[in-house]
Amino acid sequence: MSRFTTLPDLALRTLGGSVVAASDESFAEKESLIRPGRPGFQAETFGNKGQVYDGWETRRRREPGHDWALIRLGLPGVIRGVVIDTAWFKGNYPPHASVEAAAVEGHPSPAELSAAEWVEIVQKAELKGDSEHHFEVADETRYTHVRLNIHPDGGVARLRVHGEVRPDLSVYDGLGLDLAALANGALVTACSNDFYSAPNNVISPGLARHQAEGWETARRRGEGNDWLLIRLAGRGVIKLAEIDTTNLLFNAPGWVSLTGLDGEREVELLPRTRLQPDTPHRFRIHDQDPVTHVRVDIYPDGGLARARLHGHLT
Question: pTM for the whole thing?
């Protein structure tokens, strides 16, 4: 697994991504490109358009040119790597692909995006059938959209666009916000254990539908406790903490504490406090010192569905 795949998938549908246009989707719908999870497949499952695929598949091209799909990133940011997955496409995958990116603010239409200035971030590369292809990206530009080009046609199951979130926080000027939200640029930078699920789930948008959409550790058999460290969207003052154990019925932590960090200085935001299973908890924070990071300690182990830290940027 490439190192960049530990970063959020900026294009993921559950993070707000959208396939806004495609040159063709005759055999399989373009929206499948950014679905969460691994692609599925059931052999000899035929519909009106042929074998059913969990991916995007275009017709057999009989004229010059190539097919493409235009994706709006759910979370704009700096792209560190791209994964093009041709899972289950064995005799109908594209032999080559490339990826372009653009930065277009506001809410552009497909026509406006087509006229934008595009930068090639993954050069035309050879693909194999039923395989994941990892491409590192060396570009510090903040992008809002990507375009997957397949040469000349065929099927791609998933497109993953991993990177660092760079939101426009100016819309929150004078307002409060969730300083720990992935969508606002926060990131889990360290974690004691991620055996069952990824720690960045805990700061993802929306509510967790089941245990796997939160963060859950292995059962701790030794001394100590599990924890994660959140780099906030920016230096700020936290006023309200939400600690959600929804869906964690028999594996919720017994207690939680929150410690703010600002350089070498530590600030106790929430002392060790009892939690209940399958419950959203809300705690007012009375310390007024600004912090840049927050360590969430759970005792002794278990999982959290979500953690929200509401406050103001300094």
Answer: 0.87
